[in-house]
Structure formats: C-alpha cells, structure tokens
Amino acid sequence: QKARDYGVEIGVMKTGKLNSITDVDGVKVGHTTRVEGTTIRTGVTAILPHSGNIFQQKVPAAIYIGNGFGKLAGISQVQELGNLETPIILTNTLSVPMGIQGTVKYTLGLEGNENVRSVNAVVGETNDGGLNDIRGMHISESDVIKAIESATTGQVQEGNVGAGTGTIAFGYKGGIGTSSRLVPKSLGGYTVGVLVQTNFGGVLTIAGVPVGKELNKYPFKNAIEKSDGSCMMVVLTNAPLDARQLERIAKRAMMGLAKTGGIASNGSGDYVIAASTAESMRIPYQTRNTTDNGGVLRNDEMSALFMATIEATEEAIINSLFTAQTMTGNGRTVESIPLNRVISILKSYGVIR
Amino acid sequence: QKARDYGVEIGVMKTGKLNSITDVDGVKVGHTTRVEGTTIRTGVTAILPHSGNIFQQKVPAAIYIGNGFGKLAGISQVQELGNLETPIILTNTLSVPMGIQGTVKYTLGLEGNENVRSVNAVVGETNDGGLNDIRGMHISESDVIKAIESATTGQVQEGNVGAGTGTIAFGYKGGIGTSSRLVPKSLGGYTVGVLVQTNFGGVLTIAGVPVGKELNKYPFKNAIEKSDGSCMMVVLTNAPLDARQLERIAKRAMMGLAKTGGIASNGSGDYVIAASTAESMRIPYQTRNTTDNGGVLRNDEMSALFMATIEATEEAIINSLFTAQTMTGNGRTVESIPLNRVISILKSYGVIR
Amino acid sequence: QKARDYGVEIGVMKTGKLNSITDVDGVKVGHTTRVEGTTIRTGVTAILPHSGNIFQQKVPAAIYIGNGFGKLAGISQVQELGNLETPIILTNTLSVPMGIQGTVKYTLGLEGNENVRSVNAVVGETNDGGLNDIRGMHISESDVIKAIESATTGQVQEGNVGAGTGTIAFGYKGGIGTSSRLVPKSLGGYTVGVLVQTNFGGVLTIAGVPVGKELNKYPFKNAIEKSDGSCMMVVLTNAPLDARQLERIAKRAMMGLAKTGGIASNGSGDYVIAASTAESMRIPYQTRNTTDNGGVLRNDEMSALFMATIEATEEAIINSLFTAQTMTGNGRTVESIPLNRVISILKSYGVIR
Amino acid sequence: QKARDYGVEIGVMKTGKLNSITDVDGVKVGHTTRVEGTTIRTGVTAILPHSGNIFQQKVPAAIYIGNGFGKLAGISQVQELGNLETPIILTNTLSVPMGIQGTVKYTLGLEGNENVRSVNAVVGETNDGGLNDIRGMHISESDVIKAIESATTGQVQEGNVGAGTGTIAFGYKGGIGTSSRLVPKSLGGYTVGVLVQTNFGGVLTIAGVPVGKELNKYPFKNAIEKSDGSCMMVVLTNAPLDARQLERIAKRAMMGLAKTGGIASNGSGDYVIAASTAESMRIPYQTRNTTDNGGVLRNDEMSALFMATIEATEEAIINSLFTAQTMTGNGRTVESIPLNRVISILKSYGVIR
After folding, report:
1. What is residue B228's predicted lDDT score, i.e. its pLDDT?
2. CA distance B218 to chain A (A)
3. How many Cα neighbours within 13 Å face the side chain of D12?
4. Pick the catalytic residue: B23, B133, B143, B270?
C-alpha cells in the first residue's frame, strides 16, 4: 500500500489514476528481482518511455546530477544530443557493465537495428552492498533483457523489487517507489510520472513531519552516523519538452528529494533522468527531413510542471518506504519503516486526520 | 524577531550565537535602504567575507544556479578562477549595473589597488518591481559604496532592509533573512552562515507545515496564480573549502529553499554564492609563491556541511518572512505573514509546543 | 583590406558576399568609437540579430565560455531560457555596467516595452587598458545607445573601431574583425557569420603559417612574456537552431581561435555568443500559443555548420589584424602587423601564391 | 617513426625525452591488440598515472567533453569528487561494458581493496566498426586486465595497437599516438604528456599545412562526405593541479585537436581526461587527516601548461597518423597516410626544410 492509502497527502496537485509513472501514456516498467540464497538481494528495473523501437524513435531527454558519486552510464551523449535511445535501466553499482551490455544486445537485436554499431545505454545504479553480495556481480545480461522484455503498462510493483530489492533509505528498507501528478487542464493537462530507486539517508521527513527526528534516527545525531547512499529518479511526461526544458524539470526532482529529508551526502549518487514521451517530439533515427518536429512548450508554461515534478518525486520516495518490506541478506537485517509508529507520529502532527 | 524566537525549530543542528551569517568569524553585512516618497522601495545589501582588501586577499568561491532567470553579475570569472575578489552585492534587477559600477569604483579606490584594471564584481538581484518603481533605476553608485562601507560584524538587520526592502515571498512581504549552523566539534566544528534575499513563491512551508495550503494561498490553486520570483542565497563558512567543494555546498542551498515550498518557477532567478572565509585558503593577488595554500577539506568530511547549509538556508528564508513588515509602495500593499494565524497553524501541527 | 584581399585563403568553404557577419540576412552592426585626447581609445560595438524589437521577438541563443576570466553580462539567463532579448554589446572591461545600463534603457524605451521590468542585457568585453585609460570608465550610456541605433546592414567596419578601438592581439594592434561562410545548398545552404573583438595572445598563425614564430614574437619564448588577453566571438546563423544546437556551434568558435595560435591563457576571457536569426525560431515575448515554433535542425545536419563556424571565426580573427592600424594611446604605441613582412612570410610558405 | 623523425616540428616548446606520455614520471601504458581472422581488429589501451594502487592513492582529475556523442564511462564521479581511482582504459564503443567490468575486477582484486564495494572505472572509446566487427563485442574482461597488467614505463607503442588497432582518422589509418612537452624551468619545469586514440575527420592539417586539401580528401568537398568519428585524449602532468585546474587543461586539448583540422563533427565523441601525477596531490582512500594536501598551482602559472597541452595534443594526433599502418579488416582496407606525398607537400610549404 502506498502512503496515500494511509491518508498521507503530499502536495497540492492531483495524482494520476494509478499514482504511478505509468500514468504517462505508453510508459512501461519491468523488474527482474534476484533473491537467492542468503546473499543475493538485487535486481534490475527497466523503464520504457514508449512501446516502439526506442532506438529508431528516440525521445528528448536530459540528465541532471544532484551529487555525482555514482556510475550512471550514458550521461554525455544524452546531454550532447538531447535524446534517449534505449530503455532506462536501474540496477546495482557493480552491475552497470552488465546493465549496458544487456541493453546494447537488446537494442542490436531489435528488428530494424541490424546495422546499428553504436548504442548509448542509460544505466543508473545505487549500491545495495549492505544486503546484497555486490562484489559477486550477480546480475547478468539476461537479467537485464528480461526486465526490459517483461515491462508492462499499468500497475507498477514497488518496494523490494527490481533494482530496489536490496536498497536502504533513511536507515530503513528502501526500494522502488512511484507517483504521478496531473497538471490542471487550463495549464496544459499534462501528466508527470516519477519512479525512484531509494538508497539514501537524511532526516526522514514525511509530508513535512520530521519522522526521523521523532524516531531518533538521523545523521550526525551522535556526530558519528553516516548518511551516504544514492537515489535514482526517473521523470517522464507527455508534455512536449525538449532537452533544455527537460533539464530544468530534472533539477526539480532534487527539490522533491530535499523535502523527504535527503541531504545528497558526499557519498550519494543522485541522478535524475527526464524524458518527454510526447509523440510530436519523437526523434527518428533515420528520416529524409532535415529538421525535427517542434512545438516545444514555452518557458512561461513550465512552472506547473516543475511543481508536479517536485511533488511526484517526494511522494515516489515516500512510497518506496511504505511499500518496502523488512529484508535479511548478506548477514544483515534491515527493517521496513515501523508503520504503526510512523502513522501515529503523522497523526500527532495532524498530517493524517 | 526570528522564527526561532516564536519556538519554531528548523532541522536538527545547532545554530551559531547570533543565528546569523555573521556567526562566521570576520563576516560583515551592510545595508542601504531606500524608502522614499510613494514609489521608491529598494536598497542594497553588501556581504563581506572578511575585513581586509578582498581584491588583494581573494577567497575561494563558487556560484550555483538553481534557475537562471536572473542577471547576477560575475558568474563566469568565479567559476573559472574559483575565487571572489569583491564584496557580494545584492540589489534590484535593474540596478545591477550600478551595483557593478559601485563595487568596481570601491575596489579601484582601495589602498594597494592603484594599478588594478580588472575587477569582477559579484552582484545579485531580485525584482522588486511590485512595490518599487524599478524602471526608475533609483540605486546609485554611492548607495552601493555606502552599503559596503557601513558593513559591520555582529547582529544583522533582517526583513525590509537593504536589497530586501521591496521584495515579496509566497504572496507576503519578503526581505533579508539570515541563519547559521554549527557543525559538531567531532565533525570539524565549522560554522555555516546563510543570508537570503527572498522574492519568490510556492506553497509556503514552515518547519514542514504546509502553511500556504492552510492559508489557502499557493500557486496553481485556481490554475491561474503565478509564483514567479527569485531568491538570492549567500553561504559563507570558515571550513577550508576550495571552489569545487563550495559548488557542492552551493547546490545544497537550493535543497533548503525546496523545504520552504519554493519551486524555482520559470521566472525565478535562484542563485547561490558560496565562499570560504578560512584564512588558510586565502588567494593573494600577488605573491612570489607559485602555489596557493592547501589543506582542503576531504570529500568524506563534507556531508555535515551539506546538512548545515540546507538547514541554515531553510531557516534564513523563514526568518525573512518573520522579520518583514507590511509595506506599501508603488500603489500596492503587501502584507507581512499573518503572524498570529501562522503561529496558531504551527501549534495545531505540533511544531510549536 | 581583409586578409582575403591579399590572397590569403582560410579553410575550404565559400564566404558570403561581404565576407561579414552581415551576410546573415537582417543582421546589423553599429560602432561607437571614442578616440579622444591622449588617453581615451575605446568604444562600443553593437550586433543586432534582426531589425525588429528584439525583446518582443527573442532569438534562440547560447553562450559558451572558452576561458572565463571575463565579465560578460547576461550569461545565466541566456543559458536557462535559451534566448537573447537584446542587441549584443561589446565594450571594455570596466564599461560593462554602462553597457548594461545603456542596453536596458534602450530596451525599456522601445515601443511596446512600456511595462517591461526585467531585461537581460548581453554585454561582452575585453580589456583595452594598454592603450586606453580604462580606469577612467569613459563609456557612457549614450555611447551604447548610439552604437545600437547607428547599426546598419551591409559592410562592417573592422579594425580600430567600436569595441576594438584599443585592443591588442598577438602583440600587434587587434580590433574588430568579421567573416562568413556559406554551407553548400545540398547541406542546407545556410549562412554563418562571425564577428570578433580580438585582444589576446599566442603564436600568431595565419592560414597555418607560424607567423609569430617567424617574426620571433610569441609567448614563453624567453619564459617571460605574457600572453593574456581575451577574445569575444559572436556567431550568427540563419539555420534553424535551438539553444542546445547553438551551444554546440559556440564551442566550435574556440576551435577557430585555436587555429590562429590562441591558447586561451589564464587571463583570457574567451566567450562565444551564438544565436539563430531564423524567423521560424523567433520566441515572442507574449503570445496566446503555449508552444514555440519548431523545426529545429537535426543533429545529423550540424557538422557543416560546425566547420563553417570554425573557418569563419579563424578568418574573422585574422581580418581584425589585417584591418587594424597602428595606434598610440595612454603613453604606449602598438604597431599593426607588419603587412609586408607577413605577406612575404606567407608567400615563402606557399600560402599566398 | 614519429612525425618529428621526419623533420616535422609542431609548436615552439621542447618535447620530453621520449616525446611520449611516459615522459611524465611514473606513468605506464599497456596495450592488448586483437588482430584475428578477417574481422577482429580491435584492442584495449591502459594508461596508469602511477605504479601504486590507484584506488588507495587517487589522483586529482577532470574530464572535458568537446563533443559528447560517445559512451565514456565514469564522467560524473570524476567531476563530482575531482579524482580518478582506476587506470584509464580506452577501447571500442561496444566494449565499454567489458572495459568497466575488467577494470572493476582488477581493482577489487588488488591487495588492500578487499572491502571495496564501489569503483568508478574511467573507460573511453571510439568506434572501430569500419575495420572491426564491432557488433561481435570481442573484447573480454581479461583483455582489459591484460592491458593494465602489461603496462610499462618507457617507450610507448603507437599506431595500430591497443585501442587504436582498428581506428580511422581523416580518411587514413589512425591509431594511438603520443607526445609530450616540457615547460621551461623558470615557469615551473613541469612535464605534460598526451596520449590519443584517433578516429575522426576534418581537413587534415600537419604543422599548419592543409595536407587534406592538397590530397583532395576532406569533408563537404562534394557536399556528401561524412567526417564523423571520435578522439580520446588523455593528458597527464606532474604539475600540482587540482580538479578545477585540470578541467582547464583538458579544455586546451580540444584546441590542439582543432589545429590538426578536426571539427568535432556531430557524430564525434571527443573526450579529454586530465590528471595530475604530482605526489603532493595524491588523495588517499583512507587517512586520519580531514584535509588533503595542497599547494595547488596558482591560476597565474597555468598559461605555459595550456600551451604545452595544445602542442602535445596536436603532435600526438599527428604521430598516430605517422605511425599507423595500412590495415585490412571486416572487408575493408584503410591506407596509412601516403608518407612520401605528405612529406613532399610539407616540404613544398617549407615546413620540412
């Protein structure tokens, strides 16, 4: 169950039907979850901006880096060319090479890509080395391809799945979370969807309530606790945005993370990948045209999308905590957030009524 | 009175003695306030990282841009050379040229600068055109020099002073605000001080409480309200940081802004100027040495400073609202936050006890 | 006379009719030249991307910084919003404030701008403090407005005019230079025009010939000579480019500078401002549309424009040297390049035949 | 034989003893060359900034991107933390995942790294898909580890070796090239070494002579030829530079590329990795100190290093062409530069005397 199911409201804008990144039309999500023996607790999550051949029909995209202690692959080509040509893959830190390898092989193998010799895979990661034997590098190419090929529209699994299988956030079990926002019709009626992989720390704050402080669990309390970790954020929208506008959107996701109490600590890899799914903005790999379609949303129309991004990111992070389960792995147990206490704290602050 | 005087606690870290940017040893602040006739409501605020000749003893510095709809002068040289060589000046948008002119003349005129032919003035601004006749361009060189020369250590005036004289935030009267944090001794014992000029919008959030929502005053409520505006943030610390580390610090200030409900709307100029006042990091204009002093704080030691920056920025913004007064100017009246109602909301959320 | 008039050919692409930035349709250039008494040797150059109200009909633009030891105003807003809303002004370092002030007042005063309260002036500079009494800050608002208002299409004055009046390049008299390139029809038929203000050093290289070495005039020869200085480069094109593509264009101008022997020394302010004059790309200040026009040139179509930019920048820099005249000012004489010797060196290398 | 062995002098500064990146004390280079059957023409080149455990003794580093159509891994962590913690690996585009995998396994396996769970591999690439069956993804982890472990100081093999085995530049056989420069003692006496993997196009220019034009082989001649391709540039120096200064150095390498006629075409991945080998600048993975050593070279001292970088990059690129051999692979033959004709052209221009 998501935070909203417990009565937690974040922000002032409406969510989409599923309160999920898949509220953005055509978006698909797939997971490969690897829970094996006592030490493997990891996985892969794939996010597809549309159902076609993404290499042949690229989408405008941008990447913003909140804090760059991370290994996300594919940054510079997205920034230079302003587009995304593969599914977005999330996994663990040391499995980025297999993430690329799997994504490249998947792409080379698609019909129509027989002569393709260059593929820019976008593969993000956080370090699940607390619960997972990360040095074992257990993710394989086929785990990656499986995540891509199993991706579906509709309901998205959250919590201990895919790339969120072994992650930890605010000292509790983190994972995959998702949320969405609808921009009012008069402001364009666009949808913004966010999916996160949470693996970071700070003073956990839910809908403004300093839950981490109340639970007495936060960094620097005794001047000794660490708060390192990372957060991957994927923002998709059907608004017709180009790379420049998407970079602006991406920057706002970090503001959503800030509202959950994250501090982007030194050891964080906080990355935001933003893309537009608008059909009018597709960038064909090959075409006789010398220009791409346009009709980019004006600067003046961006602010509502910014707010939607902030709210959906904040809520996606909180959802990852509400949906994650206690997990034991690699000789360690990480508890899920203590739901009863959290709810009672939220009630005492008047946030759940 | 600052927010803390009403019992509002923001974050988990301790403030400095004055809860002000001047808690960073040697820092001085000065204001020129221009409230004249019915239309002039503007001013200048000068922040000096140390009391010496700043051009001769430059300080490491960085500038981060949250949203760049603004005219801040001096960006590229700070980014290239990694240092600041003048006081930091804040004023209104159309007075940036006079801000530069005044700062340059002040600098050229200092003893020891007789042969200087190039000065990089750092001048930030927000648009006070709501309460002030901004098109009149009323700030003069001497207003700027006066702000610099009147700067003092100790207590900092907040609210409707200097560059905050005519600004508006969250629909209420904004202005100058300041706050500070002390990093625990075991983590270095450094001080971080922040001063802001608030002139932006969003869903006002105080210590996590959605005050703007409770007051029914926030953007996109009726899909018609605008939330444009800007925020200048100055972060100073005595930690020995170089330009790279300071840029990381600067990015965190935007996370503090996010926690107040700011969304960095399209029309925002959200700029952070961060500098280190550590004596060991001074960069002499002329010297026989071919290297500069070092001893830069390690990456691993940064996280507590990040948290301190986030907290101090959040509180500085809130302080600007608590200290500002209702102002009439240019045919318009902007109320200060309704203190009684705000306090009662904060009490109902258990934030003031 | 330009370099080409002496038989010097740079690159492999064709020039436009005037071999000038004004070969880009609609572009206007104006100069205010101030040569007064024995110490004033400075000026202003204004470049207008089109003849209309630029604030009301903004053009897509980007700024790239080769080396940022400079004071160019307007950077962040161009980078954030991707557009230019004023004429581009070039002047001396300490006259940037008057450059902004003049440009703002010009813009506020235009018909239709009566309610404008925010203007982002783009004002570049190099330091003419060798030949000019720069500390005197002699440029006034009206010098700036005069340069804008006197701008015309057609032939552009080069050498010791406008912002190039007192500048020095490669140890010789520098100044304003311009050049253009035509992209072959089959590649789009676009025009690229470049205008430069040269004030930098290195090993002067003309069409590949190490003229500076032959003349025994280059930096670090005796491990004592300085090569500081700056170069402002303005690139305009009628190709339909957005801000992202223009930033790519702007980066290529630095490659043209490299070919003249420039090294972008520590003290250089090497800035490139690139804008598209294509009518289809205009960005109206106010409109009922929520999207801007599109039809942006595809990434695949960019390479010829890159080459055109490199060649035109290289030739514009060389033209500034060929057209500049020996100048005495501020107690110093700087010779123009020794034309006869240069031509004889170029002949001995087979570059002039 | 290098270009200089034929009498070609590039620039005005002195080379190091070997005119190679290994003139920088302690630097090692290793190659794995894979020429098998008729279709495999590829390899790996490893560059080690020092002989110790690089993860435990990181070096300050920066990455600059001339044009980002490429897949270089490791960018964001280098940019955020300002350091390099692995050997630098170069290979082909689709072998980046194996490049990372091999580098990570090599690093995890080093004595002292038993508990390391996060490694930022820096792996560059160009696309050798003309002569090599790149879709076959023939490079293995062990090819990468072999390149690292076989690295030596002293003479560096150039031309068709390692990552240069199958590359093409200016329509001729490219490959690995290297060069170095010595900064005069009075300016610090530092060494700058550059190694490149050339796989790009433009109008080939050797020591200023438009050889490509004379050979009638250059892009856009018939408005049909493509000039895509990439160049990886590695710059090492023993000057005590931090990440900010190294980024400035890295930008100058693109200026060296420009002088060879490169245009950084749309399809180019032009990346520069710069690092300082100065022992005083080492960044230990673990230490009780809270600050790193300092003594960073002052901004004022940088210009000679900039010139050294430009010259060494230009010459390294030319060396790659002089040392490469005609290669047949994947059903295609690419000739080496026609040495006799090139020399005769250079003589006719007076560049070889």
Report:
1. 73
2. 9
3. 26
4. B270
C130 to chain B, any CB pair closer than 8 A? The answer is no
Residues 6+ apart with CB under 8 A from C56: C110, C112, C113, C284, C285, C286
Question: CB neighbours of B78 closer than 8 A, spacing ≥ 6?
Answer: B61, B62, B63, B84, B120, B122, B243, B273
- Rounded to a whole number of angstroms, the distance from the CA of D301 to the nearest CA of chain B is 7
Residue D290: which of B82, B293, B301 has the nearest Cβ? Answer: B301
Question: Can you tell me the distance from the alpha carbon of D268 to that of D264, in angstroms, rounded to the nearest whole number?
Answer: 6
Token pair, residue D156, equals 């560096």
Nearest-angstrom CA–CA distance, D332 and D329: 5
Compute the distance between CA of residue D126 and CA of residue D105 in angstroms, rounded to an integer. 23
Residue C331: strand, helix, or coil: coil
Q: Could you give the CA distance from residue D136 to residue A90 in angstroms, rounded to a whole number?
A: 25
- Cβ–Cβ of D118/A129 closer than 8 Å? yes
Beta strand A269-276 with A230-237: parallel, antiparallel or unpaired?
parallel
Rounded mean pLDDT of D35-63? Answer: 98
pLDDT tens-digit series, residues A64-112:
999 999 999 999 999 999 999 999 999 999 999 999 999 999 999 999 9
pLDDT digits (tens, 9 = 90+) for C85-138: 999 999 999 999 999 999 999 999 999 999 999 999 999 999 999 999 999 999
CB A39 within 8 A of CB A133: yes
| Catalytic member of C268, C276, C320, C336 | C268
Predicted confidence (pLDDT) at residue D223 exceeds the cutoff of 60: no
Is A220 in contact with B187 (Cβ distance < 8 A)?
Answer: yes
Three-point CA angle A286, A287, A289, nearest 5°: 140
Per-residue pLDDT tens digits for B219-266: 777 654 566 789 999 999 999 999 999 999 999 999 999 999 999 999
Q: A293 vs chain C: nearest CA distance in angstroms?
A: 5
How much is the ipTM here? 0.97
The rounded distance, in Å, linking the Cα atoms of C312 and C182 is 10
- Structure token digits, residue C103: 């440009």
Tokens of A26: 């055509």
| CB environment A14-43: b (16+ within 10 A), e (fewer) | ebbebbbbbbbeebbbbbbbbbeeebbbbb
Cβ-proximal residues to C57 (8 Å cutoff; 6+ apart), any chain: C50, C282, C283, C284, C285
Q: Give the containing element (helix H, strand E) for C287.
A: none
**Residue C230: active-site member:** yes
A267 touches B: beta carbon within 8 Å: yes
Distance CA B73, CA B64 (A): 13
**Over residues C18-41, mean pLDDT:** 98
Tell which D residues from 8 to 67 touch A, by Cβ distance under 8 Å.
Answer: 65, 67
Give chain A's domains with CATH numbers: 3-348 (3.60.70.12)
Q: Judge whether A230 counts as a catalytic residue.
A: yes
Residues in C closer than 8 angstroms to B104, CB to CB, are: 94, 97, 137
Average pLDDT score, chain A:
96
Chain B contact for D290, CB < 8 A?
yes
Total residues belonging to chain B: 353
How would you classify the pairing of strands C122-126 and C88-92?
parallel
User: Which residues between 92 and 121 in chain D have a beta carbon less than 8 angstroms from any beta carbon of chain B?
Assistant: none
